[in-house]
Amino acid sequence: MIQINPKNSELKNIIILATGGTIAGTGEEGKTTNYTAGNIDIEVLVSSVRNLDKIANIYGEQIANVDSNDITMNHWLTLANRINELSKQDDVDGFVITHGTDTLEETAYFLDLTVKTDKPVVLTGAMRPSTATSADGPLNLYQSVALAASDLSRGHGAMVVFSDGIYSGRNVQKINTFKTNAFNSIEFGCLGYMRDNIPFFFNKSIKPHTIYSQFDVTGLTELPKVSIAYFHIDADPSIIDYFAQNSEGIVIAGAGSGTFSSNWLEEIRNLETKGIPVVRSSRIGNGIILTDSTIDKYSNCIPSYTLSPPKSRILLTLALTKTKDYSEIKRIFAEY
Ligand code: SIN
Question: Which residues form the L-asparaginase N-terminal domain (predicted)?
Fold first, then answer.
């Protein structure tokens, strides 16, 4: 842990846990494409943000420096356990995690379910590398630190700040491949807005998170393996069998309301006797998936409600740390 700016006793103490991504990326001066993510360290990253020392005392720790496509469950366990440990200190007021945007929503949801504190936990990143003309990282980081230092931010679970918006870890989605306004929660809306360093909250997720979540990864060194099978016309059903050989649970990125072909259903039914839960999510990314009487009569099929396939995978992974009981996993999906 390094102290980045001189301590001012009037200000809150915020810890930045850096993991890499485009926000720490560098490339050809001025350009926004063809750069390397996760290339500068926390001290250089923070030094690019003007006036950060006016809003908080900043401490930094480099957890990783990778493109977020290379984030693993080990990084998640490290982050969750580190936040849980540091949050017990009275002189720690909040956390910011810098992260690549490609998988940011997954890490945000994992932390939403596994950190055991109501101190603010804010994730952010950037769509343009630090060397781009008009890089978006500095303002995102400034606003994330401001949000983590605000008394208004407690009890919202893990949040994402991006392009002046505040989003819940549960509902946030990346919605654009290159524009700076790359995150949204579509029909659920944002939690609020950042204007400069001031948060304005308007919504709150009612789903269990952080200290209200039943999941606890303390002491865990690995997590159950859950795979995602993407359905499309003519999709090969043998992928289900393949995943069943090496996974403890399967999430289907189904069509429409979490549906798939009759030959996929045949394969999925076969898993009933093997006790492998299959969560039906949708590749649509919007709307709700409820019990379907023709599919969910098989006792291993569980609707994902509003969770996307990657977020269903996270919830199923954590559910499997607690139980293999189908009805209990079904209850967890209904509740979370
Ligand atoms: C990454 O996810 O690490 C690369 C892309 C980005 O951060 O925008």
Answer: 13-200
**Average pLDDT in the 115-139 region?**
98
- Taking only the tens place, the pLDDT of each residue in 184-242 is 999 999 999 999 999 999 999 999 999 999 999 999 999 999 999 999 999 999 999 99
User: What's residue 279's pLDDT?
Assistant: 97
Token digits of residue 318: 């954590």
Is 134 one of the annotated binding-site residues? no
Q: Is the CB of 125 under 6 A from ligand 1?
A: yes
Catalytic annotation, residues: 22, 101
Domain shared by 302 and 181, yes or no: no
Residue at 1 is within a domain:
no
Same domain for 174 and 29, yes or no, is yes
Same domain, 103 and 147: yes
Residue 104 has which token pair? 């940011």
Q: Is there a domain that residue 18 lies in?
A: yes
pLDDT of 8: 95
Could you tell me which residues come within 8 angstroms of residue 68 by beta carbon, excluding any fewer than 6 positions away? Answer: 19, 20, 21, 37, 99, 100, 101, 102, 103, 104, 107, 125
Domain range enclosing 165:
13-212
Q: What is the pLDDT of residues 319-332, one digit of tens each?
A: 999 999 999 999 99
> Does 182 contact ligand 1 (Cβ within 6 A)?
no
In the chain, % of residues over pLDDT 70 = 100
- CA atoms in the 13 A half-sphere facing the CB of 33: 3
Name the residue of 22, 63, 75, 180 whose CB sits within 8 Å of the most ligand 1 atoms, as the mutation to test its pocket: 22
Number of structural domains the chain divides into: 2
Within-domain flag for 296: yes
